[in-house]
Fold these 2 entries.
Entry 1:
Amino acid sequence: MSGIVEMFLQGLPKATISLCPDDIKRKLKARLADFNPYHTISANHDLVRATRLAWVEACQAVFDEVQKRIEHRPSKETEEIKRFDDLVKGILLEIRSNAFERDRAVGTSPIDICVEAVINGVPELVSPGEVNNLGEEVTKQFILTLSELTGWTKSEIPEIYARFASNGIKIKGGGQARPFGELVFASFAEIIKNPNKYPEAKVAFDVAVGKLGRDIAEATLKVVEGLDAKFEKALANLDGSKVLQQGAVQYLELLPEIAAGVERIEGGVKEIKANIAEMYKGELQRAQNSLHASESDLISLLANLLEQRITRENIGSSLEIAYQKLKELRETSGDLAGLANEMPEIAPLLKQADEALQAGAGFSLKQAEQALAKAYNRYDDWIKQCEDDAKRGKGNQLRILGKRIQLAKVRFDFAEAEKLLRQKLEIRLELHGEEHVDTAVSYNGLAVNLNSQGKYAEAEVLFQKALQIRKRMLGEDHADMATSYNNLGANLNSQGKYKEAKVFYQKALQICEQVLGEEHPHTADSYNNLAANLSVQGKYEEAEPFYKKAIQIWKRALGEEHPSTALGYNNLALNLNTQGKYEEAELLHQKALQISERVLGEEHPNTATSYNNLATNLNSQGKYEEAKPLFQKSLQTFERMLGEEHPQTILAKENLANCRAYMKK
């Protein structure tokens, strides 16, 4: 192949080329023409899988562009395009998922018609020359491959796909539109360069290219054997694989979607890192005082920042931002860990993220973020694949919606969860009708979500529906009835309808005592709810023993380190605070906050509530300087978790404003 020959000659030092006579160059070209990288590389299953992944990624880019162009132009053709789009995207997800499953045989795929063309272009990826239309063959095969994948004939596939594949689309980074084949080459180059994309592909590529380079170097020496000693010596000193790979990094960085993830660490950083604690003692001490972070975390974060060439005067603010990011990533990793039980495929990515977040030599926020994003995307892809399967039956569809709701809850995305809960309710109504306990469960779940968003009036209607269905289907003396009474009581309490709420709380407590017994956590919930209702009516002394009873049950049933126990301490503290028992209340607020921080983490609405409540207590004692930073932390967390328009966020803003006003007096 001339591509290899020209690339190899360009990779030689100029002094060596000048020694090479023209006739030797011709012989060299003839000898090297025998080298076809396809034979060296195509037998490697990891690279075949990587090529399929590259094809799928490029195909998705074309399909996304088609969807953007037709979304505002409804027509008969548009309907056909959307039907084809739905079919192909399901197939692509399956191919992508299979490519990552290395424990199964690689098998065959219609995409493999393009493998030879892609791998034959490897020399151009490694060291670019002047080869034009590199992906032309792959572009030509695009519609044929789609036809083989879907079973649609080439004439049935909407013409717009062939047009976009041929004319090209613009991708991130700008520049000229790239035809489909070039998108495949760009994606393949990204995969073999970025270990986070498909780790095995980069290793396989390096091994294959290294072997090819050594073969070329040996062949070159045979061609020039017995010629001028200087030239032979110059060639003998060359490392063929290095010559072959010369220019690779520079080329790959030019591809618009490949630049992300490349890390450059300057030579002096290792020395700085070894002495970092001493060199930046002042900055680290100040950060430790303000952030309460461990020294090892701060040193690792500072090393990361120095690699990005952060100036010394910006280190303080940059450390604060980086530490918040570190906490956020650790929290996300913990949330996703629960999903790994259902999808073990993401467990290695979570392990990779956790290792990157451990203070030490391998510490990297970027690598952790990339691994977690990849884990989330793979889980999301899996859910989408399950959704396709779920079209076969409504029962499966309900199961998939449940998993998507769980994912939305992990991310505190109440709006997305609401949309999915409504879909689930519609399916249950279709399957079971109004008079079914599962329908009541859906009404109740949607109402809880609306209540969390402060949509109390809308939630009340649904809580009432769930209650009436359960009463008819289960009877009055059932644990689910206690749940409905408690939920409805909490909703009415939030609307200020305290007397109505009290009746429901008392009914819930009575059922819990009869059905579940005195030592059940749900019975403690009812004691706590009734106490809260009495408190908002100003009956603080009457409420206090109910709060204490709830705490004792939770501690015995669930232990000290549990969110419910923290809630009990918090509520009793609020009650005591209102009675003017500030010091006693302060100790309980601190207990509640410490449990929430340990069990739920700092980035959780319940922890934010604890910050707010402790700050309110300190404010009542005139300790405004201590209260202010807690009010600020509470507000920031509510804004991130619940949004600026949530009632909790609005209340937190008012509390902070009041604290600042007191400080000015």
Entry 2:
Amino acid sequence: MAKRELLFSLVRSLSKSEKRHFSIFCKAYKDNNKYIAIFNNLIKMDVYEKEVFLKDKSLGIASESQLAIQKQYIQRQLMRSLRLFHENQSVNMEIQNGLCEIEILYNKSLGWQCTELIRRMRKLAEDYEKYGLLIQVFEWERKLKYLFDKPEREELEITEDEALALRKNYNSIQYERLFSKAMEFKKKHGYVNGKARDDLYQEVINNRLLRSASSCLSQTAEYYFYFTNTLSNMMIQEEKKAYFYSRKMIELNPQIIGGELFFNGLLQHITSCVCLGFFGETLSLLDKTEELLNSPIINTQPQLKLRYFYYWSNYSLYAYTYMGDKEGIVKTIDEIKKQVNTVFNPISKEMLMVLNSNLKNAYFLIGDIKSTQQTLVESLSNMDKTIRNDTYVDSLLFSLFFWLETKEYSLLESSINTTDRYFKQVAKNYEDDYFMEISICKYFKQVKDYTDDKELRKLYQNVKSTIYSFIEKHKGLNDFYEQVFIFVIIANSKLNKTTYIEEAKTWYKNHNKTIKFEN
């Protein structure tokens, strides 16, 4: 954003409370009416327009250079106001303000007052693992001892504490680096196989730091230890182990970890729950995440709200769909429509791809064929398979079941050919990478008469067998694989001659009774 618009973007980001605090703050200064008038005009603007200020004679601004000076002054005052407003809402700010006060007292040779403040800031920095700030506290403590014949703490004690803080800080940095490496693997490969799997083991999983949490010297290090193990196990499809680690991660203190980091950890644990079919816990944790998002310990940025909406919408749809909760599905769809068209418009192409993929499943389960078709056609038409190949494959396979359901056999034949052609074009290791999906497509190709009940029963049995065979090979999946399990629900409903909602309810009831999880 251009430099002249920095104040405008800052004003646009303010909450109602912050705006009110600034208005009160300004009244303590001369010429406050002019500054408040400029500030209020900025609040009202949707797009920055400098002409508004130049034309308003009451402001006495004759040129752009004068306006720039006034804006710089307002920005400085606004930042002072925000520091005061937030000083008790952030441990970092509290310690930094304390360090400023220590310097002022030190310069006035008020040593005993400094000592008390240093003691308090040292405990705060230690308790909340703010090692960078803690080192600064030790520096002031070392300076302060020259003001006394007998200082409160000797040099050796300060140095030992400083060395421990540096060791803990380095330890947490080591774990954060491992976490970053795991994230790189996840972004590049998703689930890992072949050489990528070997590389993950060599560069991350086999690292001595990941052998035990006892190697962690702080909760921050523990956070990255559990998160790295969660991601690694997710990538090798050991979802049960991933769940174990992510559950440990959210037992840490969010005030020490930091609101935004803890927020990310909660979302990851929710992902672990979804992968195992723990949908009651999924919905409960989504509520907990929303509470965290609205709490004082997190900086509620628009990006975080959008990220929460993305997880909430997709995982709520997952949960209610597989639970067979029609009322929950309908309410979630209504809320998604409202938020997408108002709060989060437009959302990214990738987010829209994934959301549409889950919406089509939800529409299908509640029997809204028109909306299912509209979402499916829109998804396949606008989908960029280079962004989310897994979502594109899911929509291709879903189209086979959908056109069969609607008896659009010509479209079914076309979709079978498109799906088969896609696999042949993009699968480098054709049989290995997409064995389950390719098998499902082959079963559709083998059906000679789509009106023959016997052939259709064989099709659905084969679909179920293929999916369960895949799950059986990956013991960590807990008899559930969210990406394709919708096809098991569809197959069961056809084989048992029940509705999709009824079949989902039956499956989830049985799944809840037979959940397999070991610590």
